[in-house]
Amino acid sequence: MKACSLVGLLVFCLLASSAARAVESVSLVEDWTQQVVGASGVPAGWKKYETPGGRPVYDFTVVSDDGARGLRVRSRDEHSSIAKEVHVDLRATPILEWSWKVVKLPEGGDIRKKETSDLTGHVLVAWPRMPALLRTRLIGYVWEATAPAGTMERSRKTSLVTFFILHSGPAELGRWMVERRNVRDDYVRAFGEEPSSPGVVAISIDTNDTHSTAEAVIGRIAFTQDGAK
Prior knowledge:
Elements: H1 3-24, E1 26-30, E2 47-48, E3 59-65, E4 68-76, E5 79-85, E6 95-104, E7 119-127, H2 132-135, E8 137-144, E9 152-154, E10 161-168, E11 177-182, H3 183-191, E12 200-206, E13 213-224
């Protein structure tokens, strides 16, 4: 083999290796680009994730909003959730990154009280364990109507869910925002131990306690390396 050919081969291998590492640095959950705009109900690749007494309607629609693909989720006096199986190594990609545009908060919602524990569209990460209703652990990243941003709250309905409140109140409603959370660190803070790899990402919206309405658009969701884009 000529020297120039050998050098070319080495360069190609290095570039291919770098490309592979770049792919591995992001674990895509959903970007909605393979979904049909206008499709309603439970999106392709997702499953119903029903909660006791939720009376789910799944008023969900794939949309193009301000040039960005997303899932518009609406709720009126019900609780709808969908889930997607994921295979994520939190040692390699501990950062959950997603975009969202919250349009409406449930009037009177406050997750610090069981009787008003409603939320507009939000994202959850789950660690299924059997029996599921007793041992599964979930972390929810939420925009709360009343409780202060920057706080962590246990669900008043089930010990399985811990909420991290990223925003609170009506300020900044109606515009796209990008969030980045270190899921590993949040799990340690919530449960006091190192996490295993999560198995599910869920999207949820609920208004069945306040008998109100809520709306949000959930955009691209991915796990990335710390510092990766």
